[in-house]
From TrEMBL:
Domain Major facilitator superfamily (MFS) profile: 29-459
Record carries keyword Hydrolase: no
Name of the molecule in the record: Multidrug MFS transporter
Organism from which the protein derives: Gluconobacter kanchanaburiensis NBRC 103587
Pfam families: MFS_1 (PF07690)
Length: 462
């Protein structure tokens, strides 16, 4: 069975444009893509571990120190679509190299920061560099792998995301056990330099769009994401006045942006792609999957501490099976993503994830470590099965010339889902006195909803 039959019509790709690379060329190009990806994901995961030490050293409160993470994620999310559009004009490989260079410079700035404002601004620059990498990451994979093997490339991409998430906390803890927190940023330098050299030598030249860069649309897109994100964060923390004002400003920017984009031939927010039902459904399924995952990932440490009474060291070990499951299944599914449609594989994957969350939700408070760990691993297996086929469905639903917009939307679905999940956790912790199992229940329901939507896509998309 071919995934193409259910996920996109046969004419949605150009045989010459998407012929791919072979042999040593493919190996070197994919190595460059994966090294840049690992740089972005690993640093995000490592920084989370250092927050308590950063807050203490820079004399900042825990709530303010969270902006070390928020500044990165908000800048990353806000810039993804404008940079994906820019990548189509300057070349995906060139933009990836710019992103690696920005990431390197920002890492030095982070390590040298003397106060929280400096560190947050440097992290925002890192987020822009990460957005350069992530916005064109899958678009490059689209040109490295031939159409019939695209699922393998996307699954390998997912494997390295899982590895970065799994290695980040452990590597961060190791660095902090022998050095001060600036070293979690200094460690980026050799990795970034290696990625930059390899990217310059090996990334393929991709076709470029000759449509001029839309500066007005780019600025409106950044403002829409940034204002909405900051406003919703304020609302979820019960700062209703300022949060409400900023959120309304964000919504107004969205209204102006979408109206403005209707007249554009290649809109930055790809409304032309979202008008294609297979593309829209794949994006929605991806969004729901990442909402569910972050409802679990953000809330589970609190659940393990307050409900299951585990210590900090044990909490890290009990969450690690999630990343191990995601990475392992991403490797296994690489052979399946090109043979079976996302309406089958992704639906099964999210159903398994939801079932894992359900099994965790049903645990008694005196459950042993093994009981928690295998259920977490089971949920991770499901998420690893869900991601690559759904990501493939997003990419093959885009016509030739719109790989950049599709790659950008894929990353937006992931980051918007993660951000929404984190905001929902903040809201549930604000409203309920004991929200731990409520978050797990919300993650379970969201994953089941995503599975049902994925299963029905071949009927809805007709």
């Amino acid at each position: 069975m071919s995934a193409t039959t259910d996920d996109a019509p046969q004419d949605e790709y150009d045989a010459q444009r998407h012929a791919g690379l072979y042999g040593a060329q493919r190996f070197k190009a994919m190595s460059a893509v994966l090294l840049a990806l690992l740089l972005s994901v690993l640093d995000y995961a490592i920084a989370n571990v250092a927050l308590p030490l950063i807050a203490q050293d820079l004399h900042a409160s825990s709530s303010r120190a969270i902006w070390v993470v928020n500044a990165y994620q908000l800048a990353n999310l806000s810039c993804l679509l404008p940079l994906a559009s820019l990548g189509a004009r300057v070349g995906f490989g060139r933009l990836s190299q710019v992103g690696i260079f920005l990431f390197l410079i920002a890492s030095v700035a982070c390590a040298l920061s003397q106060n929280l404002l400096e560190l947050s601004l440097a992290r925002a620059l890192q987020g822009v560099g990460g957005a350069c990498i992530m916005s064109v990451n899958i678009a490059l994979v689209r040109f490295i792998y031939p159409h019939k093997e695209l699922g393998r490339g996307i699954a390998l991409n997912g494997l390295f995301v899982g590895l970065g998430v799994a290695l980040g906390p452990s590597l961060g803890s190791l660095i902090l056990s022998i050095a001060s927190w600036p070293w979690i940023f200094w460690i980026n330098l050799p990795l970034a330099l290696a990625a930059l050299v390899l990217a310059h030598a090996a990334l393929p030249q991709t076709p470029r769009s000759d449509i001029p860069t839309d500066m007005v649309g780019s600025l409106l897109t950044v403002a829409s994401f940034a204002l909405t994100g900051v406003g919703l964060d304020g609302l979820m923390h019960a700062d209703f006045l300022s949060g409400g004002i900023v959120t309304v400003a964000g919504i107004l920017c969205w209204a102006m942006l979408l109206r403005y984009q209707r007249e554009r031939l290649e809109p930055i927010v790809p409304v032309d792609l979202l008008a294609r039902r297979p593309f829209l459904l794949a994006v929605l399924v991806g969004f729901l999957g990442f909402v569910a995952s972050n409802l679990y990932i953000v809330a589970m440490p609190f659940t393990l501490a307050s409900v299951f009474h585990r210590e900090a060291g044990t909490i890290g070990l009990l969450i690690a099976p999630w990343a191990v499951g995601v990475a392992t299944m991403s490797f296994v599914v690489s052979r399946l993503a090109d043979r079976f449609p996302a309406s089958t594989l992704s639906s099964i994957g999210l159903f398994i994830t939801a079932s894992g969350f359900c099994l965790l939700w049903l645990l008694p408070t005196d459950a042993g470590n093994w009981d928690i760990a295998w259920r977490t691993l089971f949920a991770g297996f499901g998420f690893g099965l869900f991601q690559p086929p759904n990501n493939r469905a997003i990419m093959v639903a885009a016509p030739p010339g719109r790989e950049g917009g599709a790659s950008g939307m894929l990353s937006v679905a992931r980051l918007a889902g993660q951000t929404t999940g984190a905001l929902l956790v903040a809201a549930l912790f604000t409203v309920f006195a004991h929200p731990a199992f409520i978050c797990l229940g919300a993650a379970m329901v969201t994953a089941f909803t995503g599975s049902a939507l994925s299963l029905g896509r071949k009927y809805i998309a007709v």
